[in-house]
Design brief:
This protein is an alpha/beta fold and 405 residues long. The protein has helices spanning 4-13, 26-36, 54-60, 88-101, 121-130, 149-166, 198-208, 234-264, 267-279, 285-300, 307-317, 322-327, 337-352, 365-401; strands at residues 16-22, 43-48, 64-65, 77-82, 106-109, 135-139, 178-181, 213-217. Strands 3-4-2-1-5-7-6-8 form an eight-stranded mixed beta sheet, with helices on both faces. Strand 1 (16-22), helix 2 (26-36) and strand 2 form a beta-alpha-beta unit. Helix 6 (149-166) packs parallel to helix 7 and helix 10 (285-300) runs antiparallel to helix 14. The model has no long low-confidence stretch (mean pLDDT 84).
Length: 405
């Protein structure tokens, strides 16, 4: 294990600074600083509008205010002070932006409530050296003594949504003990929130930007309930995090998942798929054409969310090619949905003799019902017509390409 002195030297070689946001943690701040200065020479404390003796504690350790001499940067022991309490997210955001602007390449962040051990910083240093482009998140032992039950539930809840939003499985997504690569991400964006949910946002946006997000184990100390200092408000903050996850999932549906799918699509992969699953399989032309028709038909139906599962199930029942049927339901990906919806409504209006476009500003319940009927009936008719036309083209292509066989 790396010694405290070696840790200090490595942090300086890596151009890494330790950031500690604090709000009225005077009971634990002094103990933390006494231990932290053994492992790090460059420390930035963010005083988030503290109303206790935080400044007195920091002065005993020789911290200077960033505002006193801005030209000196934030090397050594410095303090960034907010006049009013802005929230943990705002504190971290301001500190990360300031550190990046001053030329620091990495920022190790830790909480001021005494839960994190500075002796774990060497583990982050080793992780930075081995994974220099990664955002590293501490993974706590959720079975630790005095660990609040709500924390365990909240972390598992957050882990589930994080995996859904990014495809990455993490053991802990809420730990504030982290190492941020400052050159890979801009933390000054307006989309970052100012409270606890910033830490979730930062790792979601990092993953969406192609930054590797990994866990390393860290120790955790939870004092007894009567000694614990926490500014987390369960109902308010849990509600905010839930709303944030809802928004992030919607962004995934509309942009991230279609973007990732389109990035994976290339002409060589498309050709390989057709070669492997259409042109060079033992299935007859008729069976492949019907599988293709089923996938397109189900994919165009106005019943979103279960296209793939429905197509695969029906293909299995009808003894068709399940892979082909399932793959072609992807015609309903997000970029094509506005076109599909328009064609469905237009077809419904054509069948029922209604007028296009609709005027939403004077819409009655009767109008809304008519639109729904137009959309459903038209969607079924459009799906049948479009899939039949596509299947005809598919049959011609198969007869030409597979003629030799």
């Amino acid at each position: 294990m790396m010694s405290p002195r070696e840790c200090k030297e490595k942090l300086q070689e890596l151009h890494a600074i330790v950031i500690v946001p604090t709000y009225n943690n005077v009971r634990t701040l002094g103990t933390l600083m006494a231990d932290l200065i053994k492992y790090a020479s460059d420390i930035l404390v963010v005083d988030d509008g503290c109303t206790d003796a935080t400044q007195a504690v920091l002065s005993t350790f020789g911290f200077r205010s960033v505002g006193d001499n801005p030209e000196a940067g934030i090397g050594g022991r410095t303090c960034l002070r907010h006049d009013t309490n802005k929230g943990k997210g705002a504190s971290l955001k301001d500190a990360l932006v300031l550190a990046a602007g001053c030329g620091w390449k990495y920022a190790v962040t830790m909480d001021a409530d005494g839960q994190h051990y500075p002796s774990d910083i060497p583990s982050f240093v080793e992780a930075i050296i081995s994974m220099p482009e990664s955002l590293i998140v501490g993974a706590r032992n959720l079975a630790s003594e005095n660990m609040p039950a709500r924390n365990t539930f909240a972390n598992r809840f957050s882990n589930f949504w994080y995996r859904l939003e990014t495809g990455i499985r993490l053991e802990d997504t809420q730990c504030g003990f982290r190492a941020y690569p400052l050159g890979r991400q801009n933390y000054s964006g307006w989309y970052y929130t100012s409270l606890y949910e910033f830490e979730l946002e930062s790792i979601v946006f990092a993953a969406w930007s192609g930054i590797s997000v990994v866990n390393i184990p860290v120790k955790i100390y939870y004092p007894p309930a009567d000694e614990r200092v926490s500014h987390f408000k369960p109902f308010r903050d849990f509600t905010r995090i839930s709303i944030l996850n809802t928004i992030l999932v919607l962004i995934c549906l509309v942009y991230i998942w279609p973007r990732n799918l389109l990035r994976k699509i290339s002409w060589s992969r498309i050709r390989k798929f057709f070669d492997d699953n259409l042109f060079h399989v033992k299935d007859s032309n008729l069976k492949l054409t019907l599988s293709f028709w089923l996938g397109i038909f189900i994919g165009l139906l106005p019943f979103g969310g279960y296209h793939f599962v429905t197509a695969v199930f029906l293909a299995h029942i009808l003894k068709l090619n399940t892979l082909v049927a399932g793959a072609f339901t992807l015609i309903s990906i997000a970029p094509l949905m506005p076109f599909i919806i328009f064609c469905s409504c237009w077809t419904g209006c054509l069948i029922l003799g209604h007028q296009m476009p609709f005027s939403g500003f004077q819409m009655t319940f009767t109008d809304a019902g008519n639109i729904l009927v137009d959309y459903i009936l038209g969607g079924i008719a459009f799906a049948a017509a479009a899939s039949s036309a596509c299947a005809g083209i598919c049959a011609v292509m198969l007869s030409i390409v597979r003629r030799k066989k």
